[in-house]
Amino acid sequence: MTIGLRIAEARPEADAALIARAAKLPVANIGDVMNRLQAMRGGFLAYGGRRTFVGAALTVKARPGDNLFLHRAIDLARPGEVIVCDGGGDLNIALAGDLMIGHAEKRGVGALVIDGAVRDLDGIRKMDIGIWARGANPSGPYKDGPGEIGYAVACGGQVVMPGDLIAADEDGVVVIPRAEAAAVIDAAEKHAAKEQETTAAIQGGGWVRGWVEETLAGKGVVVSK
User: Fold this and answer.
1) Binding site residue list for substrate
2) Binding site listing
3) pLDDT tens digits, one per residue of 186-208
4) pTM value?
């Protein structure tokens, strides 16, 4: 049985132009245009020196508390990729610390998103790499396996496939399915432009929100004066 002990090295090439466009957008705008369904749940926090990042996913499934396959994924990652690790959400043992993450930084990994814990926070916050995780714990990991690389994983309640775009900032992490990425970024750019117009209107002392009154009226809200 190979399930739980397999590595698929082949994966789609990243669309550099699309990633560059996405990197200019707030992650919240990207999530909004996907009907607010693609954000990772569970309170992912930014721990690395890079506080915002967009890149293509290299997926890893790890046994909670064990980082053998995460180590191998760092060696296989292309420059600029985001390693997305399904660690089962376990916060009792850290899956990565400053030595391992320092190796990822030197190899050009853009970011790691870990559904689990990290450690050595003082060191990793100084590194030029994005680190998003559910929490921190000083306990170190085992290195026995099993695990998988390059297959579908669940991370923060989202399915992530190899080659999906991952966008992250201090708000959290969203998953952009690769097949829909171009349409999503088109829509997010328009959404961001509209929000800029709203910001300008607020700064100018206005912001007409007729939809609020219309929505309340449609629900039969009674206002007493």
Assistant:
1) 97-100, 119
2) 97-100, 119-120
3) 999 999 999 998 888 888 887 77
4) 0.93
